[in-house]
Amino acid sequence: MQKVVRDVLERLLRWKIPLIIVLVIVLLGTIHYTSVPRPEISRLEALWRDILSPFQWVFSRIESFFHNQVAEINRWRAVKERNDTLEELLVQLEAEVFEMRNYRRENEWLREALDFRNEREDDLLVAEVIGRSPRNWESTITVNKGQAHGVASGMAVVTNAGIVGTVINSSRLTSTVLLIIDAQSATGGLVQSSGDLVLVEGGQIDRGSIVAKPLSRDTTVEVGDVIVTSGLSRIYPKNLPIGEVVAVESRQYDLSFAAVVKPFVDFTRLEYVLIVLPQEEL
What we know:
six-stranded antiparallel barrel; six-stranded antiparallel beta barrel; single chain; Thrombin, subunit H; rod-shaped
């Protein structure tokens, strides 16, 4: 049996090369025959095409589907990358706009402070607000100027809008300012329209307002009057704006009154202040 199998294999091997040659020639002939444009095709080709046409249609739809999906994914990736780039650019532009607004606001404030300095003979030092009291947000502020800059306790702190408060203590590089709206604050004031003297105190009515009390029975104050510093104290120079009278309340027992004054300074938005330095004696 093994001998028979061996003989068969030897015969196959003997005819292997000629058989391969014949198959290649037939294949090439078929390719050439079917590739040449012909007005008519054989029945076998027509039948084969008809059999394969449903499968071709299915494969064509599948290919088209996957092609569209890949194109959609690529388009989505491109859109996402573009959106990510635009978002980064938007964040950068917003930061630049915010910074530019801060610079513009700072420049406007410094320009106003320079005009205010030129209008007065006082020696003014610009300081930035770097902190507020955690115990009472509207009582004190901390500024970035201290003893190294010539700041000492008892110095007046103002803005171009009006008075802010008084330096109550200072370190080498910082100082604490007691605001005029604090209950411990008091200074001499003047009714600008009449020249009558008043005592301006903080924390008497509500947070953010101050009170002007008359120092004479003949003093008259009306709503709309402007209160300025009297210059009689050792802290504030004369004629610095304090605020505007928004209400006048009569006192039942001493027949006097108390004027509620709204400060010209917005203490909730303080960023920079001016410290009034003592003038050098000639």
